[in-house]
Amino acid sequence: MIVLDASVLIAHFDARDAQHGRALKALESTGSEELGASVITLAECLVAPARAERLDRAHTALGDLGISELGLPSDSSTALAALRAQTNLRLPDCCVLLCAQRQHASLLTFDAQLANRARSVGVKLMAAG
């Protein structure tokens, strides 16, 4: 499995985003690998479509990519607090890391700080296009 960060998904869905081409290439290179994103990541990606009243289209696009919504188990608070303390990342980024850790998955992100912290906690990175 490959866990996707919001930076990749937002760039993929916004043709005006500076990373759009890179996101297309990166997602194409995943092949048949299963894709997932934390519930928090998906919420971040759905804010702009919600504002534009295009949630149906956004959900369809996410479904077309085959992205699984990865929930956070009820015992996640301690693990998230530990990741936040260890990495000094924002909680949404900690959710991404926790999902990657629990799924034994690679991480695809365009966020250099998140990538560096992922390496420091043993999360493998997928080349980001």
Shape: globular
In what range is the share of β-strand residues?
Answer: 5-15%
DSSP E strands, number = 4
- On the 0-100 scale, what is the average pLDDT? 95
Tell me the number of helical segments per DSSP (H or I, 4 or more residues long).
7
| CATH class annotation | Alpha Beta
CATH topology: Rossmann fold
Specify the biggest β-sheet. 4 strands, parallel
Quaternary structure of the protein: single chain
Reported CATH architecture: 3-Layer(aba) Sandwich
Helix percentage range: 55-70%
Tally of discrete structural domains: 1
Going by CATH, what is the homologous superfamily? 5'-nuclease
End-to-end distance, in Å? 17 Å
Poorly predicted runs: none
What spatial order of strands do you see in the largest sheet? 3-2-1-4
Instruction: Determine the structural class based on helices, strands and strand pairing.
Output: alpha/beta
Element-level helix/strand string = EHHEHHEHHEH
* Rg over alpha carbons: 14 Å
Features:
alpha/beta; 129 residues; single chain
Topology:
Layout: E1 2-4, H1 6-13, H2 20-28, E2 35-38, H3 39-51, H4 55-65, E3 67-70, H5 76-87, H6 91-103, E4 106-108, H7 112-120
Parallel strand pairs: 1-2, 1-4, 2-3
Helix pairs in contact: 1-2, 5-6
Would you mind describing this structure in some detail?
The chain is α/β, with parallel strands linked by helices. It has one domain (2-120): Rossmann fold, CATH 3.40.50.1010. It has helices at 6-13, 20-28, 39-51, 55-65, 76-87, 91-103, 112-120; strands at residues 2-4, 35-38, 67-70, 106-108. A four-stranded parallel β-sheet has the order 3-2-1-4. Helix 1 packs across helix 2 and helix 5 (76-87) crosses helix 6 (91-103). The longest helix has 13 residues, at 39-51. The mean pLDDT is 95.
